[in-house]
Amino acid sequence: IPTPLASNRKSETMESGKGGRKGGAKKKGISKSVKSGLQFPVSRLGRYLKKGRYAKRVGVGAPIYLAAVMEYLAAE
Fold first, then answer.
1. N or C: which end of the chain has fewer CB within 10 A?
2. Which residues contact residue 64 at a Cβ distance below 8 angstroms, ignoring those fewer than 6 apart?
3. Number of independent structural domains in the chain
4. Sign of the alpha-carbon dihedral angle for 16, 13, 10, 28
């Protein structure tokens, strides 16, 4: 007995166009501060870095690093 192809099985399991998720309540987002385990507002610091025009581009890790340093200095 031949086994079915992987592509056939994949198409059968796809329920909708949302990556297989079923409709329902949307999960609440997790903030960058919670993801990085910090108390200082990472997103707000990132917004300030962009708005202040300190550089043309701001990296993804810059506000996280800044928040960590500020939190460390506040704890000292």
1. N
2. 32, 36, 38, 42
3. 1
4. positive
Mean pLDDT computed over every residue of the chain = 84
Q: Is residue 49 one of the residues assigned to a domain?
A: yes
pLDDT tier at 25 (50, 70, 90 boundaries)? confident
Contacts 24+ apart (CB under 8 A), 28-36: 32/63, 32/64, 33/67, 36/64, 36/67, 36/68
> At a CB cut-off of 8 Å and minimum separation 6, what does 15 contact?
21, 22
Mention every residue, 6+ apart, whose C-beta is less than 8 A from residue 43. Answer: 31, 32, 33, 63
The whole domain housing 49 covers 32-76
